[in-house]
Structure formats: structure tokens, C-alpha cells
Amino acid sequence: MTILRRDSHRRMPWKNGGGETVEIAVSPDGAGLAEFDWRVSMATVATDGPFSVFSGIDRTLSILDGEGMTLFIEGREPERLTQASAPLSFAADARTSATLIDGTITDLNVMTRRGRFTHSMRRVSIDGNGEVELKGGTSLVLCHRGDVEIDGAALAAGDCLLVSNEVATRRSISGKAQLFCIAVEAT
Description:
Layout: E1 2-4, E2 10-13, E3 20-27, E4 38-45, E5 49-50, E6 57-65, E7 69-73, E8 79-81, E9 88-91, E10 96-100, E11 105-113, E12 117-134, E13 137-150, E14 153-156, E15 160-165, E16 169-186
Antiparallel strand pairs: 1-15, 2-3, 3-4, 4-11, 5-10, 6-9, 6-11, 7-8, 7-10, 12-16, 13-14, 13-15, 13-16
């Protein structure tokens, strides 16, 4: 288990130059936008416009803060994405643009290289003691709001727990928090 503290996340410009991304984790370590196998990041979106195109990449988005946005993804009906919406998966090489619903938003973005890795993302609310299931492969647990302890590892808002498992495991958890559980698996 590795804790990726909020203050250690890497800030970098968007591929299309339209904003800034906060990179939480990338594999392999230090990989650039053209070489990564998988990547987890947050972005602040302040204006309507096109998304960066990533050839051969699958992506999932979820809204962390703000009212949300409407996504226009090539070949699909427009999708309204808000904090209450389930994470939305789509091909990152499909032409995509967004219209903000009511002002600036922050999103959580998971990307994996198609044919080599797959991923899933789910929102989990914790209030008390329990267990959280982590799938096999690489699991990331982002603490979005609140504070939580997972198997003795304390996470505050913005911190992320990175766990590599050969098989699925259940971990003890306590606290009051909103989390995003991300699983990345080799194909």
C-alpha cells in the first residue's frame, strides 16, 4: 500500500493546452501523455470546449465539484454528467466536447490503454466502520471528502491509496468520507 498525498500530485497542462490537470497516479511511473498504460487525474474545467483526443485510450469521468457538464461524444447522444451521476465511460479517441451547466467544475478522470488494460470506477460513501472491496490488479481509493482510515492508512480529502493485489481483497475501513474506488486490470 502506498499513500499518494494531495500535496504530492503533479500539476501539468492539458494535452490541448486549454487548462491544467492534477495527476494523481500514472503507470509506468513518470510516463508522459503519449506513453502511459493508465492514468488517474483531476481537471478543473472553466470554459466550454473540446476535450483532448487520446488515441487508443478508454476514459471514465466523474464530477467532483460544480454543477456538471453536458458531454457531446461522437456517435452518442449528449450525456449530462453531474455529481449525482454514475461515472461515465467512453473512448478518449472519439471527438468530445463539453458545455458547462453552471460554471466551473472539477472532474475525476481515469484512462487506460485499450487492449492492454481495463478499468472501473465507483463512488462509495463511508459513515462508520466496515470493509471496502478492492479488485485484483491495481486499486486506487481517492478520498474526495472527509477523512478515512483503510487498514491503518489515514487519508484526508485529496489523498489517494494505491494498492497492488494479485487477487481481490477486502480491507477494513472507518471514518466518514466520500471515496472513489478505481480498479485497473491488465487484459
